[in-house]
């Protein structure tokens, strides 16, 4: 069996799908995207195509190393996201060839279902208590929300108090044991992050996410010593070598590699095993589409340290199209009592509506994240 075609498609709301077709009729699907740079990643996949045509798609490890190591410059968001989408598609093909879900080819499942959480609020969250209660009534046992709006290195305490009021309202509405994850989104710098993390302790959050950017990973230890809340990060890291530095630096309790950014299934499985050796949990990042979500669940199924899975159904970014719009087997992704069942279909477990994908690709999206500024005119972290 040889790879015959590699096709890319830009689809709303902000995703890029990769389709790999073989000469035996099998095809696999992946998601290769950096949100806001989807066209750039698409071009990178197209540049990598010459390394794939007429190659045996079953040799996933060799293909991964060719795409990563054969280039003098390696790593980073664009290259690794391109590799991620290709890798997912190759595993999809392999699972279909062997008539098994991908997790069966990686040692088999170590759980029967995967806990998931739901997003509430938007970039500037409001009415979060009502939204959290709605998710609880829908069966979810945990949510995640953005914590703050813009924050300067040193800022006023009214912004801190506003965060505390929102989280307090969720805790009051949902009860003591409902999971609340609070995403700092890299918007907070170390001086304010230590203050906010300490003050959030009283609400017993499930975790705080990206209290500072991984560019400043040496700060995680200081923040961890200032509060008793699990710290999660990793969506902006792209390889096991990035995570090696993070794990060595310490202070992190949960890693969040993204299956569409951090090298795909092949790489994230290795990253998860590294984290397990440090007694660190896994909660893959996935504010993306159905293929990325399916890839995450395949890895979750095989990792003892996987604790909870992000998914983007209902997230504020999904305008025009949502996760399940692009698949025909929607019933396989039903959330019951805060869990999703493991995929039963072969490969990644998604049946893609290719007709819709091709139609969307006729008018490619051009999604960009907003540009925020502080009152003084300087750029703020979004």
- From the N-terminal CA to the C-terminal CA, the straight-line distance is 45 Å
- Radius of gyration equals 20 Å
Global shape: globular
Would you identify the CATH H-level superfamily of the largest domain? Enolase-like C-terminal domain
Number of strands: 15
- Quote the CATH topology of the largest domain: TIM Barrel
Keywords:
382 residues, alpha/beta, Enolase-like, domain 1, TIM Barrel, 2 domains, three-stranded antiparallel β-sheet, 15 strands, globular, Mandel_Rmase/mucon_lact_enz_CS, galactonate dehydratase activity, Galactonate_deHydtase, metal ion binding
Written description of the protein model:
- The protein is of the alpha/beta class.
- The protein has two domains: 3-100, Enolase-like, domain 1 (2-Layer Sandwich); 104-346, TIM Barrel (Alpha-Beta Barrel), CATH 3.20.20.120.
- The chain has helices at 38-48, 60-69, 77-97, 128-137, 157-174, 190-200, 220-226, 240-249, 264-277, 290-302, 354-361, and strands at 3-11, 15-22, 27-31, 113-119, 142-146, 179-183, 207-209, 231-233, 254-255, 281-282, 309-310, 335-336, 339-341, 372-373, 379-380.
- Strands 4, 5, 6, 7, 8, 9, 10, 11, 12 and 13 form a ten-stranded mixed beta sheet that branches.
- Helix 8 packs parallel to helix 9.
- The radius of gyration is 20 Å and the shape is globular.
- The N and C termini lie far apart (45 Å).
